Amino acid sequence: MDFAELLKNGDEKRRREKYLAVLHHIIRRPGISRSELIRPLGMSKNNVGATVNAMLEDGLLTEAPAGREGSGRAPLGLRCTPDLFYTIGAALTQEHAALVLIDSAGFIRERRPLRHEGSENIHVFLEEIRQKCKSMLQTVDPAKVLGIGTVLP
User: Fold this and answer.
1) C-alpha distance from residue 48 to each of 16, 45, 74, 77 (Å)
2) What is the number of other CB atoms lying within 10 angstroms of the CB of residue 120?
3) pTM reported for the whole predicted model
4) pLDDT tens across 107-150, in order?
5) In the chain, which ranges are E strands?
6) Side-chain half-sphere CA neighbours of 139 within 13 A
7) Which residues 6+ apart lie within 8 Å of 145 measured at CB?
8) CA dihedral 140, 18, 73, 71 (to 10 degrees)
9) Is residue 53 within 8 Å of residue 60, measured between CB atoms?
10) Strand 76-80 vs strand 108-113: parallel, antiparallel, or unpaired?
């Protein structure tokens, strides 16, 4: 590997690290503005702007006016492109049990109630979860599903 390739690979690694840092903050705070990213990222305004612009061009992010009261121009909020990745969530409470398919923008794409949550036979309940997860995976690219999580009371 020559010096130019070494620099290119180093630049690519730094670019990926910046992308991941920006994604981390946008996933945690959908609708965050570019200016709100500066401090937590520890990057300059120009660096944040260049990174966000590149991510917009790469189709990783969307930008839309964020609702705000008052005068002046509303800031633009950043979100992940909805089909960037998906997660499946299992909400298991005493009142109800359901599986949800959530896109990378944080929106519920699909919700499926679980009917056997009170079943004496745990195998019946687990089989229902397996079947509904399998069905949800048929509605999106399975390679884009990061995993499954649970919400318990």
Assistant:
1) 13, 5, 19, 14
2) 7
3) 0.73
4) 999 999 998 766 678 888 889 999 999 999 999 999 999 999 98
5) 61-65, 76-80, 86-92, 97-103, 108-113, 145-151
6) 16
7) 85, 86, 87, 88, 137
8) 100
9) no
10) unpaired
